[in-house]
Design goal:
With 499 residues, this protein is α+β, with helices and mostly antiparallel strands. 24% of the residues lie in helices and 28% in strands. It is built from one helix and 27 strands. The protein has one helix at 381-498; strands at 17-19, 34-38, 41-49, 52-61, 66-69, 73-74, 97-101, 104-108, 121-125, 130-133, 137-138, 148-152, 155-162, 168-176, 181-184, 199-203, 207-211, 223-227, 232-234, 239-240, 250-254, 257-261, 272-277, 282-288, 301-307, 310-316, 327-330. A five-stranded mixed sheet has the order 6-10-9-8-7, with no helix packed on it. The protein has a five-stranded mixed sheet with strand order 11-15-14-13-12, with no helix packed on it. A five-stranded mixed sheet has the order 20-24-23-22-21, with no helix packed on it. Strand 4 and strand 5 form a beta hairpin. 32% of the residues are buried.
Amino acid sequence: MDTENGNWLLELDHDQWIALPVSGPRPSARYKHAAAVVGEKLYIVGGSRNGRYLSDFQVFDLTNLTWSSIKLNVDPNSENVEHSSPEMAFPAISSHNMIKWENRLIIVGGQSKNISDRLTVRFINLESHLWGVIETTGNIPISRSGQSVSLVGSKLIMFGGEDKSRRLLNDVHVLDLETMSWSDLETTQTTPAPRFDHTAEVHAGRYLLIFGGCSHSVFYSDLHVLDLETMEWSQPEVQGEIVAPRAGHAGVTIDDKWYIVGGGDNRSGAQETLALNMSKLVISVLTSVKGRDPLASEGLSVSSSIIHGEKFLVAFGGYNGKYNNEVYVMRPKSNDSTHAKIFRSPAAAAAAASVTAAYALTTPEKAAFTDTRVSNIEVDLSVEINTVKKDKKLLESSLSEVQAEKSALQAKLDDTNSTHVDLSKELQSVQGQLVAERSRCAKLEAQIAELQKMLVSLQSIEEEVQEIRRQKAEFDRDIEVASAVQRQSSGGVWRWVSG
């Protein structure tokens, strides 16, 4: 590779990952860090390794392929950093988010040793290399980690995560970066299940897409869409490849494609690099790696960059049984020209919810966070009607299957209820027997107590009998002695008379 002139990317094949030949020392291998590309530099903050949170700030130059470590000092104007000094290090943190805003990196949430009850927002100034805590106002969310954060105009949209008590969340909050004020979003329709370690992206400045993630026991591969104008959730069907559930993956968009890399299910890493066409809602496998490849890891990061007019992906870190610190790049093919599309709200598209093509697709007239305008809306109604009819038949067939399954489940439920009644009766009978046995035991214990008292009395009587026997024996000896003396005395008198 021509690393000296920064022309190495021109040698890359399309849609293939390649490890960069990094010069000099590298940062510690890690996962669950945060990454952002600014210009031709990749910035890495924090992460986790062997159960220890990291606090370093690393930068990778994408032109000369070298790493360097940057020392951060506390911003003296940051009033929320307690007991701060200019030499105070950036806090060790993991499972956080980071985005670039103006000349700063904004770091949201994450796990740390001294986590507060409310969500902490920090900043790093890319020019002065000062860091601090941003004072936010409004309805500040509770602290959390594993959440997703997406930038829409001047607003950050945060979804889900888990709090410091490991309670799973599925709430939506917005941080206005101009006023640094938090607000809640009140949504309708079916909200995604609470989750963390998912990915999120915003399409056309209006639609928030949530993909994958996990609870404490379940891994997801579902896609949910929040219309930021109507505040309605929907779960459209995704066409194309069937992908395995995953969490801890990373995602980034180039044009209207959402590239999703890595992740896993605690047993194996996801080997595919996915490309989701957000306009058509079609997902495809761009490439695959081997099972133990660093790109098949959880907690890695992926970013996008433009060098010499070329767009490419850059991935770093992750854990798949081994912590990684390799830098990988991919040069994706240029995007095909397609007509822009939108998602209908669930109420307007209920009859065609199972098929993406049934949605009327266009650029939104007015988004909640942008001022985009509608132009050149072309919808083939006849095709859409035929599609809806086909979908209706599919839905009716699915409904019949669901009803049959419901009947089977109801029969099982009836059997279970019957068994429950029998077991309840048996339990009551056993409880009655137990009461009787307890009463019998109480009587026996009373009899035992009386017998013990009688035994004590018998022991006393036995002692008295022994004493009487002893006295009788002594009396018998005394009588015998007396009789012997009397006989001796009587014999002497008769001998005197006869003599």
